[in-house]
Design brief:
Layout lengths: L34 E6 L16 H8 L4 H12 L5 E6 L9 E8 L5 E7 L2 E7 L5 H12 L10 H6 L1 E5 L5 E6 L11 E3 L10 E9 L8 H6 L7 E4 L4 H15 L8 E7 L2 H9 L7 E6 L6 H18 L26 H9 L4 E4 L5 E5 L21 H21 L3 E2 L12 E2 L1 H17 L3 E2 L1 H4 L4 E4 L7 E4 L3 E2 L15
Parallel strand pairs: 1-2, 1-10, 10-11, 11-12, 15-16
Antiparallel strand pairs: 3-7, 3-9, 4-5, 4-8, 6-7, 13-14, 17-20, 18-19
């Protein structure tokens, strides 16, 4: 027996007992959970390509600037999952970057009083209209509402929430909305007039020209390199262009390697038509590391969708990697979904799922929830053959969890073991292991994973595991460990037989 504190040559009579903490039989280690946001740093006191850990919303504002995309995302993440911590790192804007802008042009004269409102980057700006108010007066009232702020504040409510500001044009009736941050992503702000009946005033109208003109694609590679060897289970990418998604996916793929085994999911938000979404997912047809949350004309900004979905998804998959996310409510997106006419139909959602895009459910009360969360993987990366169905996010999550638990079990039980051949007289001696011992341990652990509901059919697949002592290296055992990830009840197909 291997004592650490009691000398083997100790001769003084008495009872001496070492105390060691060991896991109770039948328990699992539990996988770590750590999330990081990767975006652009345009202001504040922060330094590019520096990881800031365990941020509060206020710290994100100070480091990245009030209303910056990173500050918005940190606030949304922490509001969605207050018990989680979030790190963040940003890259500098690309050279010659430019900010996008939108216009709202007022027209007519109010024939009654009431309230009108515009939704800018998901933030509702309302202003009071009186009977007889002209377009110019309404435009001035709207700008005043956009620029309102608390006493002694350096920025307006609108700017603090979205990074947007509003200015009145020289014609007196056109308002320009612009982001203080620069880059192509600034074109993705949603700008619209409220369609709610209580926000309509007879005689006045507002014509919107959408956000456009954003220029500049920063490269997130330096920020990814700054992550170093820290294990992040979930990365929330706030820039959704193809080159940066590729960089994040390559980083996640490298961490999946057996010699690193620090699996990482990448969450990305996107807004576009069905064809635009599918064009993006096609470039990542073998990527099971990336989860895309995409909708057509949502009120939310894509980076908010990524932060909210990433927070909920990370927590849920860490708690149970095999449980589907259908029905998990995305609180931070409530009331910000697309109009009914812009929501994808069931047929379109089916196409999107098979194309590697996750789908959401929009309820009548404005709440939003996951419908089905899949990865971008659409084909087998080895054979190039198209998959039979969507590659659910639970599949790689289960594989990562089982690997982590099995590796942790090995370290706890066998890292100092001696290796003997099957049939050796030392086979049952403490501190000695054989391939037969290892196989029995694997089956026992697999049964624990099955009891957790992560994998299935261990009775069949457990005995199929193979452990062999390497023929050239007596200090090495090679094994194959077949598992079947647990299935989910996603589709219930019924035949209702009406007997008449």
């Amino acid at each position: 027996m291997d004592f650490e504190q009691i000398p083997g040559s100790w001769g003084v009579p008495g009872s001496y007992t070492e105390i060691r903490e060991v896991a109770a039989p039948g328990t699992l280690v539990g996988m770590p959970l750590r999330c990081v946001l990767v975006g652009q740093i345009s202001g504040g006191t922060g330094v590019a390509n520096t990881v800031y850990s365990s941020l509060t919303a206020a710290q994100a504002v100070a480091l990245f600037g009030a209303g910056s995309v990173v500050a918005q995302a940190v606030a949304a993440f922490l509001k969605e999952e207050p018990t989680l911590t979030i790190d963040a790192v940003g890259v500098t804007p690309a050279d010659s970057s430019a900010a996008a802008s939108a216009t709202l042009k007022f027209d007519g004269t109010a024939t009654s009083g009431g309230t009108m409102a515009a939704i800018l980057g998901g933030y509702r700006v309302a202003f009071t209209v009186t009977s007889g108010m002209t377009a110019a007066e309404a435009a001035q009232a709207f700008v005043a509402a956009c620029n309102s702020s608390v006493a002694n504040a350096t920025v307006s409510y609108l700017n603090a929430e979205t990074g947007l500001s509003a200015t009145l044009g020289s014609d007196g009736v056109t308002v320009t909305v612009q982001s203080w941050e620069k880059g192509a992503f600034t074109s993705q702000y949603d700008i619209r007039v409220s369609s709610a009946s209580y926000d309509q005033v007879d005689g006045l109208s507002i014509a919107v020209t959408p956000m456009a003109g954003g220029v500049g694609l920063p490269d997130v590679t330096p920020a990814l390199q700054a992550l170093g060897g820290t294990w992040y289970t979930d990365l929330i990418l706030l820039l959704n262009d193809q080159p940066n998604i590729t960089a994040a996916q390559v980083e996640a793929k490298s961490r999946e390697n057996a010699m690193i085994a620090k699996d990482m999911r990448v969450w990305v938000g996107f807004a576009g038509t069905q064809s635009q979404i599918l064009a993006l997912t096609q470039a990542f047809s073998t990527a099971e590391e990336v989860v895309l949350i995409a909708e057509q004309a949502p009120r939310w900004s894509p980076w908010i969708a990524a932060a909210v979905a990433g927070a909920e998804g990370a927590q849920a998959l860490n708690s149970d990697p095999s449980r589907q996310l259908q029905g998990v409510v995305l609180t931070g997106l409530a009331g910000l979904g697309p109009d009914a006419g812009d929501q994808f139909t069931p047929i379109q959602r089916n196409v999107l799922l098979h194309g590697g895009c996750s789908t959401l459910k929009f309820n009548r009360d404005g709440t939003v929830s996951f419908e089905r969360v899949v990865t971008m993987r659409q084909v087998d990366p080895t054979s190039g053959i198209a998959l039979d169905g969507p590659w659910d996010v639970m599949i790689p999550a289960i594989n990562a969890r089982v690997r982590y638990e099995w590796n942790a079990y090995y370290v706890e039980n066998y890292q100092r073991a001696k290796l003997a051949d099957v049939g050796s007289s030392l086979e049952n001696v403490p501190g000695v292991v054989t391939v037969r011992t290892l196989k029995a341990s694997w089956v026992a652990q697999a049964l624990l994973y099955q009891a957790q509901g992560w994998i299935d059919d261990v009775a069949t697949l457990g005995p199929q595991a193979v452990f062999e002592r390497d023929s050239l290296d007596r200090n090495r055992v090679n094994s194959t460990l077949p598992i079947k990830p647990m299935g989910s009840l996603i589709v219930l197909a019924n035949i209702l037989q009406s007997q008449v």
